[in-house]
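Because discrete structure vocabularies remain unfamiliar, we reproduce here a specimen of the format, pairing a chain with its fold in token form:
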Amino acid sequence: MSDATGFTIPKIELGDWIETGLDYLTTNYSSITRGISKFTETGIDVLNDALMWLPEWALIALVTLLCWRLAGTRLAIGSVLGLGLIWNLDLWDPMIESLTLVVIATLVAVVIAVPLGILAALSDRFYKVIMPVLDFMQTMPAFVYLIPAIPFFGIGSVSAIFATVIFSMPPAIRFTTLGIRQVPNDLIEAADAFGATRSQKLFKLQLPLSLPTVMAGINQTIMLALSMVVIAAMIGADGLGNEVWKAIQRLRPGDGFEAGIAVVILAMLLDRLTQTFSKEKKPRS
């Protein structure tokens, strides 16, 4: 790159450095990634087969009962209508595949994110380190997360889960940290006065009081995971995203809208169900 005076500024070969780093990791740690890939594929197959084994009407009945118990009659009726529409549109199998990917990616993301959020809440030094990292992760375009997944895990659902986990973790970390830091100081001082240890304060005071906020973060993680699973159809992920991608490639907008509506129904059900854990119990309507 040069300016009007002819002075040349050498280009920073950032892309080459990243490619070199990825090549090094994929070459020297391929056995680890292969093991992770096989383990993840097994988990996907087991959960997917278990959900597919249930008849459509039986799974709809179970989801309806769960919605009624947790959120009331209104959501139960909505779940029957929504899942019935997905079944009628012949999108049941893709919906189950998407749900499987979302469940596994969310579980992995939460297992990683909640301990990191707790550590950030208890350590100011770690908090100052991880917050800029989370800002970077949340401003990075979603498509970019697909790039490093392919060298490590190849094309398919495992790469989709890898990208989804990285993309969906930040809200869970942030909300966990926020919830614990918002616990009133007078309660912490009272626990100290009674001689509570650090672990007792964490597990018997801070985490229970911060649970609604933590669940709100998990809710956001689930929503981001679902959106990423749809995008990940570009690298071979199965599910509703693949139906949307095929409709785009074949110029069939009707099929694309049908799959999109199924995504919205699944997102609304997951959103409303997880929101019940971040609110106080109310009488069923």
Summary: The CA atoms of residues 48 and 100 lie 6 Å apart. The longest helix spans residues 198-231.
